[in-house]
Amino acid sequence: MTTLDTVLNKHGNGLSFSTFSNHQNQIWRGSLDCIAFEQNAIKDKLLSLDKPCYIVRVADNIGVTNDGYLTPADNASSAQVELLISLPPLQLQQFGDPNFLTVHAVQYAYMTGAMAGGIASEEMVIAVGKQKLLSSYGAGGLTPDRIETAINRIQEALPHGPYAFNLIHSPNEPAIEHRAVELYLKYQVRTVEASAFLDLTPNIVYYRVAGLGLNANSQIEIKNKVIAKISRREVATKFLQPAPVRILKDLIQQGLVTELQANLASQVPMADDITVEADSGGHTDNRPLVCLLPSIISLRDEIQAQYQYEKPIRIGVAGGIGTPESALAAFMMGAAYIVTGSINQSCIESGACDYTKKLLAQAEMADMMMAPAADMFEMGVKLQVLKRGTMFPMRAQKLYELYRTYDSIEDIPLAEREKLEKQIFRRKIAEVWEGTAAYLSQKNPEKLGKAVNNPKLKMALIFRWYLGLSSRWSSTGEKGREVDYQIWCGPAMGGFNDWVRGSYLAEPQNRHVVDVAHHIMLGTAFLYRIQNLKVQSLQIPNNYSQYRPLRSTLEM
């Protein structure tokens, strides 16, 4: 026969309760055998998220169980087990906005964001999509032919989705942006992640409005979904509002959209989802998430009150999401979904080379810095990169300082030019310009014509040769150029490495993007349960509050 002495742990488990029970009207019924009093057994019970969690007290000992049941208290009876806290089962689908799951046909409010140059590769999008999670292909910086190949491959593997393609703003080369939109419309890519936009362009408006129509019930149907990644209120405002009338008129005149579509555009916002991008890798304003997210949610509410959209815009977050703690913080602040970026670059499916993945797996939070961006070099725009193991950020900054100081390559002192040729370019400046001119003659002859008569622009294009190739070297694993690798990365990478240290995910060869996603979501749910218990007065030692990735937990 089971007795109290046989089930109670003789050693303290560290649990204590700081107030009276809130369950005077309920009691727990069940076998004493199913109550855990030992620390490892308690942790297992807390991790059983698909089951209810009961915190009980037996003869001044606090234990945890997932079994048994609750019944109304009977004043005539005195139970030997006192119920302290009861929590319901917890599903990962409960986090975020359920409309995000429905609209995008996914199982979690979790997305992997685009990393340009195909770093967010076809393999990544397909692997994530097969698990019914949303992933955005990193189309930025790729040729139309390369993007077209990716579309065909992803659509073949995921004929019913989910997947998205990145549309990156190209202020210096709008034709590239336009060609990407043409491909997305041609192949009916139904979701794009719009990033780095400083303002709305005819291209993003064209994509959005070309997908508008009326269904059989005369309701507005939005076929082309837009997830806009922003970090500034003024840019968010543009995506939260309907398309500008002036752009719509131009599109009608060009025969790209119809009068009906333009009229419908006045009733819907430019985006379905707004991703608030905090301190991220690549293009970033280094905004703190705890300040930025509430501000954009408030802005969304103001604009929703003004336009009364039938379907309010969802606000998600990106930048700094690399652990269950950061994910839970985002959800608790009201995020409809979370987006990971930097941490996926170190995964097997990413388009980065093995050497880059090893550097990323060693990165700490302080190993990042800002460096000039190739696509917006003349504007002084910077992006966040890894500085550990590479000289790129320092060398890129040197190039920008020279650009700011001098009006032409010829104005740069001879000694400085020789350093450029020997240390950074590793070839003569004339050779760099020759290769640049050959490229532009095929891709952008108009810009080449301008550069011939504009020494300052010519100098910028020569410097952009290095900035552009350095990211490609990181993806292809260019031998001998390791110290010049441009690796886009935010502090989330360091946080992730701290979290997985000592686990199987510490090594890059074990990092699968889907595993990472599941562990972050599982950890988020576990920490939510722990915080729920703490709020209800259970005092829990820190060793119970830590979630570490284990292969076995993927079966939960």
From TrEMBL:
<dbReference type="InterPro" id="IPR013785">
    <property type="entry name" value="Aldolase_TIM"/>
</dbReference>
<feature type="domain" description="[Acyl-carrier-protein] S-malonyltransferase-like inserted helical">
    <location>
        <begin position="406"/>
        <end position="485"/>
    </location>
</feature>
<dbReference type="Pfam" id="PF21607">
    <property type="entry name" value="FabD_helical_ins"/>
</dbReference>
<dbReference type="InterPro" id="IPR040981">
    <property type="entry name" value="PfaD_N"/>
</dbReference>
<dbReference type="InterPro" id="IPR049489">
    <property type="entry name" value="FabD-like_helical_ins"/>
</dbReference>
<protein>
    <submittedName>
        <fullName>PfaD family protein</fullName>
    </submittedName>
</protein>
<dbReference type="Pfam" id="PF03060">
    <property type="entry name" value="NMO"/>
</dbReference>
<dbReference type="InterPro" id="IPR014179">
    <property type="entry name" value="PfaD-like_TIM-barrel"/>
</dbReference>
<feature type="domain" description="Fatty acid synthase subunit PfaD N-terminal">
    <location>
        <begin position="28"/>
        <end position="89"/>
    </location>
</feature>
<dbReference type="Pfam" id="PF18328">
    <property type="entry name" value="PfaD_N"/>
</dbReference>
